[in-house]
Amino acid sequence: MAGSTFGKNFRVTTWGESHGPALGAVIDGCPAGLPLTSEDIQSYLDRRKPGTSSLTTSRSESDTVEILSGVYEGVTTGCPISLMIRNTSQHSKDYGNLRTTFRPGHADLCFEEKYGIRDHRGGGRSSGRETAARVAAGAIAAKALKTLGIEIHAVTASIGNVTVPAELLDNLDNASLKTAYSLHSVMPDKSLDDAATELITKCREEKDSVGGSIYCTVTGMPVGIGEPVFDKLDATLSHAIFSIGAVKAVEIGDGIAVSELNGSENNDRMRAADEGKVSFETNHAGGILGGMSSSAPIKIKAYFKPTPSIFRPQETVCKNENGKFESTELTIEGRHDPVIVPRAVVVVECMTAITVFDALLENMGSKMEHLKKIY
Amino acid sequence: MAGSTFGKNFRVTTWGESHGPALGAVIDGCPAGLPLTSEDIQSYLDRRKPGTSSLTTSRSESDTVEILSGVYEGVTTGCPISLMIRNTSQHSKDYGNLRTTFRPGHADLCFEEKYGIRDHRGGGRSSGRETAARVAAGAIAAKALKTLGIEIHAVTASIGNVTVPAELLDNLDNASLKTAYSLHSVMPDKSLDDAATELITKCREEKDSVGGSIYCTVTGMPVGIGEPVFDKLDATLSHAIFSIGAVKAVEIGDGIAVSELNGSENNDRMRAADEGKVSFETNHAGGILGGMSSSAPIKIKAYFKPTPSIFRPQETVCKNENGKFESTELTIEGRHDPVIVPRAVVVVECMTAITVFDALLENMGSKMEHLKKIY
Amino acid sequence: MAGSTFGKNFRVTTWGESHGPALGAVIDGCPAGLPLTSEDIQSYLDRRKPGTSSLTTSRSESDTVEILSGVYEGVTTGCPISLMIRNTSQHSKDYGNLRTTFRPGHADLCFEEKYGIRDHRGGGRSSGRETAARVAAGAIAAKALKTLGIEIHAVTASIGNVTVPAELLDNLDNASLKTAYSLHSVMPDKSLDDAATELITKCREEKDSVGGSIYCTVTGMPVGIGEPVFDKLDATLSHAIFSIGAVKAVEIGDGIAVSELNGSENNDRMRAADEGKVSFETNHAGGILGGMSSSAPIKIKAYFKPTPSIFRPQETVCKNENGKFESTELTIEGRHDPVIVPRAVVVVECMTAITVFDALLENMGSKMEHLKKIY
Amino acid sequence: MAGSTFGKNFRVTTWGESHGPALGAVIDGCPAGLPLTSEDIQSYLDRRKPGTSSLTTSRSESDTVEILSGVYEGVTTGCPISLMIRNTSQHSKDYGNLRTTFRPGHADLCFEEKYGIRDHRGGGRSSGRETAARVAAGAIAAKALKTLGIEIHAVTASIGNVTVPAELLDNLDNASLKTAYSLHSVMPDKSLDDAATELITKCREEKDSVGGSIYCTVTGMPVGIGEPVFDKLDATLSHAIFSIGAVKAVEIGDGIAVSELNGSENNDRMRAADEGKVSFETNHAGGILGGMSSSAPIKIKAYFKPTPSIFRPQETVCKNENGKFESTELTIEGRHDPVIVPRAVVVVECMTAITVFDALLENMGSKMEHLKKIY
After folding, report:
1. Omega before A346 cis (within 30°)?
2. Fewest C-beta atoms under 10 Å: which of A341, B236, C146, D240?
């Protein structure tokens, strides 16, 4: 039942439907003493905002966040932080035919059967708009992490068959990130963005959609973050990423490729490095060993299915007036992105931030030595 | 800190180290009234047991389970079920050189840095032996699910480049499952098993190891199991699967492939079917829509890295007597599987069973109608 | 850190400070299919509202609740229900001297030392206003319980030494409840209310305050609700009640008195009753045996300390400009109830409702028989 | 369903029935680096052991604890600690008549109706023997707290009408504690012990039982431990204490008495003290303000009902062969303490230790300043 909270220590609860009056998040467990303004959050929300290009839905929401609690004179107080975003551009009448008809590839049928009732307007709770609340919460986690020297960055890794080469992803720097954030595709290269744009435009013309993938990396991690044996860092990260709609696969490090490798190829060699640290000569593991951070950069890849809302006629089912299923044909109307990926980049980044910050808080009690520093 | 419990309603807590006196699990929240004997559990444990073939570690453990509580006169009572397996074949002296040296690809370094102390013998808590406790718990979940008409089956999908064709995986039946469970590789085909055996033998000769993948399917699911928005069924399944050591990727349904598809290809058409049900003409989604079961078979693939313990000399680090890291070379001794996958098949099956049963319990409160059936 | 959520299944998260823009609650896990309007909630909020009499604070808040999500066409959808109440009557300037001075009997010092920062205006997060959010959430639980035949009622049991006789509490009926809810003291008897009013008036004149107690009863409970061994129903109820500010003692059934009784006096005799039920000839246990409901009415008593805000000069400490504590004298200004109890009655009722409904949801998985009714 | 785990960070899961093969606890989340031997635990278990006097049950259990995991070379490793105590002195045949008859004042009826099945032997899961597992876990929490300068002590405060004066409780020192632990009643005074012994002996002769109360105090607490607004320290302490069988009331500080006081009497004056601390001139609040520790000693009182097992004939119900309730008369046999209190003293102490240590771990993330000390 209660599945709208994520995290054990930095606990994020989201609420709201696509066409309700508002949506938001309550963050409980944010440590006190973090400087925080609504601008910190807004800059993340703006990266997710619809209506910024011809490639995305034409729904135009300002997505202005309001901080309702937990911040006093620009600093977090340790009390729950309540964030709210008013919905302003609902076109609910576009969805009239979806009250009794179930869109293929969507959650509609499952909501109907699970709850016996659903808000069908714009997907209701299962709308991508819910991720605005995640982004607002994640912006806070990201800011807290930054004060501890931990940075998280995500970019688009592929759209359809337009794929960013691994070398580019492995070597993201400020320049390539800046490029990515300035381009509609959020790919870290202009010519790839051109190819992706062409592909998406074709999809739109053909009333179709396309999938893609996102790459996310975390740098500056201390060693040992993540909790064996069930709350390993890769396990909670994949939980976080798979909780984003449309994700169908998650890889850590080299992911699927390692299943064809030998141990002698896949093991990352360790060497003693400066300042009492350990360096890894390769990073097949993607920064996680035994479910804990190894200090090497964490590497995550998330794969998204194509937007299920397409504008072609589709075979599906509806419920008739007797509550029985009937086969029917549906042509979806309204406003929908032909590809989810570019707007999901910041969502992946934010879910990663929430997960990593929660894990850092959890690790504080790992040894008596830590307690003695505080008490 | 506390990461050894999985599940919210059917709560499994595992404990134990590879070379301690015993390991076990406590299952809290198992409904009363389920017939249960130690044989029910033993049959699952036997599928995971080491020492059953030349392909696996020669450590020979009987893995005999003892039920210490929660079962009365052969039926669960609703009280916590405590299961214990005594360790009997520890060769701790094999691990003497690992007290201060950290094995590449293993959790050693992370344990040391996180806790400041570790039981290095046989990997301690991070040993694959810990999964015996998961299998014992999962056997109970699987039995409970079976009484509700839900079945879970897993087989090996690949070892190195020896891959079971998709058609075979999509059409697992009693005969092919029986074949799989009779073969060392746990592949559902004798000739593929021959090829895999050859590959593994070669690995062993070359003091190397190899990765692989596991396919798991769940049939008989009701619609709507899984909790939006964070505890979606795919999210909790991936959490469960990634919590198994050595997993580096998880796919649901067509997984990564969907990222290159168009929506018109990927959407599964729905049709009204007999008995008031809905049928899906394809199953790209792998039985999960919007994070809830759709009633189509659930399809999961887990990808495992090669066993990090290989018998070649490897570059790594140790801690010297001053507690500083030094670069060194290590040659691992002891008993290790050259491939983890065949023994992990039942672990994937059991973690899936635990996750699905937990989700079924969670869903009981989804609507007032359900409460009125009970109160 | 994260302490603003209560409940495992019906999960209530409250947020908001006394002098922030708003306060509210998110309820995750409310079953779908419950008819719900803002009037249902408002009627509970109105019972807690300040400014309704000369006996309470003169802060005048309309406490109008807005339902922001989780309800569609007047029925709960199973999605999180977000409730918001705007603050409209903050007089923050009244609290200027409390920025660095810590009020005796209040949470001020603890907040300062725990978080290093606090919103001192009106008590910030520790203000009694936070309970408005609990009442809003509890109104939903109470409505759900009522549809299952379970009713919860609370009244004032004492104010200072003005005490409602046990017989009156044991025999609350619609008439006496109606009386209670019409009187400022919320006592179920007009002459006792007169005595209490006199006492409170005297307190106010003497710039002092007084304590009291609240009685709450739950009828219509099925047998067996509550989870041994740690989440017994009395344990979770006392957790819920003690989480209300100013509570210093909780009794179940005869409470403290039983510690002087013999077993032969205290054991409640059971007899076979109509309709396959069991009746109890007495109810010393207060409806809970072994931590589970017995079907007899549940009886809870909560004892509240006098309002710590009094208008006499008090010895206390402040922090000087170097961050050091100094002894000082404080005279509190602003608006404060001379007794908390009458306004806390509905809070006790609502926390009880939340706890009981959560326990009913938890109990759904108690036996396989229940699962078979649903799946 | 799953109610056998207590704590969020220092998580204690108990398992086992009175007449099963064993009982135990798994402690997940104990920080690494705490020296721990089985003797540390045994010394607490010995304080709870049955059979040590004519005043207690004659069941003679050695209650020898075995540490099965989580401790390596005498130090905790951060991995789950599994503790087991074998049952050795079960006389299950004593309980034959209780298979279908429900003892007044016991959990029998509720277990039967909740689960549809129960292990009736010796009370099964609801037996006081379950508390041995709590004591074993609590001994670890108490040892960890001691290394941080926090001490917890409990004594008997009353048995029937034999009551330890408040001055004696308020001034417990090593001498009076030593006295208490040497006496059967666990009262800190020999003459009171004599009076209590006389009372208990009379109860036994009259085939009756008697109630009593326990006082527990925590010293050395830092300021600010406990989590507003629902997991206040008094709320979690009362949850912990009420989860012990037979508890019917809990008081913090002056408890019930404050409900008759004025604010001017009840507020504890604060003064600036040495070393940058604050001192309290009185301690009516019992060391907790706003649900957080104030640094003054924490004072808890728990009230226990008389042992429900008495040897007189009692009116009750049984289930006949058709599963219907029938009125009947029952005379209980077996071994039962005429008063629970003396053996429960260490249980109260241990549940307090678990709660306080869990709260200390939770508080580690209260401010960014704490994180910067560790990361």
Report:
1. no
2. C146
DSSP, res A35: B
| A75 DSSP 8-state letter | E
- Closest partner residue to D370 among A29, A369, A374, by Cβ? A374
**In chain D, which residues have their Cβ closer than 8 Å to the Cβ of A360?**
371, 375
pLDDT of residue B337: 85
- Helix and strand numbers (H, E) in chain C are 10, 19
Is B312 in a helix, a strand, or coil?
coil
Return the partners of chain D (3 or more C-beta pairs < 8 Å).
A, B, C
Can you tell me whether residue A325 is helix, strand or coil? strand
The nearest alpha carbon in chain B to D85 belongs to B68
CATH number, domain containing residue D272 = 3.60.150.10
Residue C132 pLDDT more than 70?
A: yes
Give A370 to chain B, closest Cα distance, Å.
Answer: 10
CB-defined contacts C:D, below 8 A = 407
- The per-residue pLDDT for D56 is 59
Residue in the block written with tokens 């189509």: B296
* Yes or no, beta carbons of A15 and C23 under 8 Å apart: no
Specify the pLDDT at position A225.
98
CA distances from B181 to A82, A105, B129, B297, B344 (A): 53, 35, 20, 21, 12
Residue D191 in tokens: 């003459």
DSSP designation for D244: S
* Number of domains within chain B: 1
Q: At what angle do helices C131-147 and C341-363 cross, to 10 degrees?
A: 50
Distance CA B188, CA C367 (A): 36
DSSP label at C367? B
A226-284: pLDDT as tens digits: 999 999 999 999 999 999 999 999 999 999 999 999 999 999 999 999 988 999 999 99
Does residue C66 sit in helix, strand or coil? strand
What chains are in contact with B, requiring at least 3 Cβ pairs below 8 Å? A, C, D
CB D12 within 8 A of CB D27: yes
Counted across chains A and D, CB pairs separated by less than 8 A come out at 80
Kindly report whether the peptide bond that precedes residue D229 is cis, defined as omega within 30 degrees of 0. Answer: yes
Q: How far apart are CA D25 and CA D14, in angstroms?
A: 4
Please give the residue range of the domain that contains residue A326. 5-374
Task: Specify whether the CB–CB gap between B24 and D82 falls below 8 A.
Answer: yes
Q: Which two tokens stand for residue C345?
A: 């009655």
Low-confidence ranges of chain A (pLDDT < 50): none
Task: Name the helix (H) or strand (E) containing B11.
Answer: strand B11-16
User: Cα dist. A316→A102, A111, C365 in Å?
Assistant: 7, 16, 34
pLDDT of residue D53 exceeding 60, the answer is no
The per-residue pLDDT for A57 is 59
Q: How far, in Å, are B255, C218, C220, C257, D155 from residue C295 at the CA level? A: 51, 10, 7, 22, 34
Contact at CB, D4 and B77, closer than 8 angstroms:
no
Nearest to A233 by CA among A358, A51, A147: A358
Instruction: Note the pLDDT tens digit of each residue in B41-98.
Output: 999 999 988 655 555 555 667 899 999 999 999 999 999 999 999 998 766 666 677 8
Question: pLDDT tens-digit profile of B150-185?
Answer: 999 999 999 999 999 999 999 999 999 999 999 999
Q: Do A291 and B107 touch (CB under 8 A)?
A: yes
Nearest CA to CA, how far is C44 from chain D (Å)?
A: 20
C-alpha C171 chain-centroid distance: 21
Chain A contact partners (≥3 CB pairs within 8 A): B, C, D
* Closest residue by Cα to residue A131 from A279, A283, A243: A243
In this complex, the residue of D3, D20, D79 whose CB is nearest that of residue B69 is: D20
Contact C230 D5 (CB under 8 A): yes
> Chain A: nearest CA to C239, how far in angstroms?
19
